Amino acid sequence: MPMSWHTMMEFVPPLVGCVISNLNHTFEILRTTGECVLNVPTAELAKKVVACGNASGQSVDKFKTFGLTPVAASVVKAPLIAECYANLECRVIDRTLVTRYNFFVLEVVKAWIAPRRKRPRTIHHQGEGVFAVPGRTIKLPLPKTSLLTS
Q1: What is the pTM of this model?
Q2: Which residues span the domain enclosing 120?
């Protein structure tokens, strides 16, 4: 699903906030159906991601045109993309800010990953055709007691 911006909002339940331009075909679909799939592509799909983002699903079958494989989701009607590392089935749970800011709050109701892919090089759009690819990973020890529960 093409979006302008997103953020993780909560872990339990898993909530994601996203902004989608009201000029995009996706905006009307999400507003009407109240569900979607967020796809997490890898660097190998970068050219297809850009091509999909620059084509309207209103006039183009993106799966056929860009050689992607739709897979039936288990909770929502929107399809997963088989080539993506992860797919998050979502439902809109809050539309309060849609009219003013095009901001939807989504609950992730089912998550899928490709478990065989170790350390995938996922891509993250930063705007203006620029993508970040995660680099070095660090792991820090967890504190014995949480500061959040103190």
Answers
A1: 0.85
A2: 5-132
